[in-house]
Amino acid sequence: MTNTITYTTSGSGVFTEDFSIDLIAGALPTETRWLDGAGGAAADYPGSLNPFLPTNTDTTNESGRGLKLVCGRVSTVLVDDETITLSGGATKIHAVIVGDTSTAASSLALKAAPVAGVAQFTVIGTQWAGVTMWMIVS
């Protein structure tokens, strides 16, 4: 299966995905629309069983996107307050782990918890290109 996640930065930084792994674990706790069945209106459950009749589509009231573990690297140096935004096959960042900057007196860190599909970074000193980054996305 081809990966359809697009990574866009707010500056000159470039995030390159090395690989991603599907984390098959069911629906996220915040995704409850699937409880209404394919034919049900929002917040229809519990109620009639008619919305749960068979359909030929999996796009109505689906369980939401599954989680993915993405491993990649920042191949061009990020600057302070730069952001990485997801689109396409993932639109939400749940967690970020940043690798070592490998340069004395420098650091690259997540500025705050990601909001939807956007992660903002704090850069101190001169960051080294090639920093690894792991993200859990959906």
List low-pLDDT spans: none
Write down the overall mean pLDDT: 78
Shape: elongated
Span between N and C termini? 16 Å
The SSE order reads EEEEEEEE
- The neighbouring-strand order within the major sheet is 1-4-7-6
Biggest sheet features: 4 strands, antiparallel
Q: Which structural class fits the helix and strand makeup?
A: mainly beta
Q: Over the alpha carbons, how many angstroms does the gyration radius reach? A: 19 Å
Features:
138 residues, mainly beta, 4-stranded antiparallel β-sheet, 8 strands
Please explain how this structure is put together.
This protein is mainly beta and 138 residues long. The chain is built from no helices and eight strands. It has a four-stranded antiparallel β-sheet, with no helix packed on it. Strand 6 (107-110) and strand 7 form a beta hairpin. It is elongated.
Describe the structure concisely for a colleague.
The chain has 138 residues and is mainly beta. It contains no helices and 8 strands.
Write the topology of this structure.
Layout: E1 5-9, E2 14-23, E3 67-76, E4 83-88, E5 93-98, E6 107-110, E7 118-124, E8 131-137
Antiparallel strand pairs: 1-4, 2-3, 3-8, 4-7, 5-8, 6-7
